[in-house]
Amino acid sequence: MIKACRWLHNWLGLILVLQIIFWFLSGLVMAVMPIEQVRGEHLRFSSTLTWHTASVAPASILKHHSANASLSLSQQLHISDQQLSASPVYLVADDDQHYRYSATTGKPVANLTEHQIRQLATAQYLGQGQLQKVQLLQQLPQEVKNLTAPLWIVQFNDANNTSFYLDPATGLVQRVRTNGWRVFDFFWMLHIMDYQDRSNFNNPLLIATAAASLLFTLSGLALLWQRFKPARRRSRLAGLPD
User: Fold this and answer.
1) Any stretches that span the bilayer, and where are they (predicted)?
2) pTM above 0.90?
């Protein structure tokens, strides 16, 4: 039994050593990095919106869509008198499509122009760089793959290589991506062992490796107990009178 435990422990150690190092290293890196900075919250200005100007009932919007459609609250940003303002918008998800309606008029919200996107991105940016590039993406990169295309990407030439991803209809920054986020995402990939989508925490490779690591730990505890048990027994016998 002990020989089998030692054999199992040694081979599992050889197989798992690299991933165990990755787990500890990635966990340390992710614990050290402030999550607010990873998300870029310090680089984005969030506008405030009051819904007292909304005059259109959600039911009047949903009647134009299927019974499975869902409605959520959003906003559209504007620049007026060099100030960032917002108007209320209904966002309807229906059959994998998204529709936006003004909550004050009920009319569909038209997409913003590139000039407006530039203005809104600059108004929401709190960093020290300058706007470098603006592009409308029909296919989204890995770092925002969970969002829905199209999106505007606005890049700034700061030390963080900051990228804003803006909704083409509302002008809202949907995601902020920086070098810090990309480092965090890389170590998150190592931690959950999802090397393709970087999001599946229940993938079979992670489950199998975690189970093997548990066997490695249990076999090590068994070997440790076997090693020190005779020593305790000898120490008790040494205390007995002759």
Assistant:
1) 12-35, 205-225
2) no
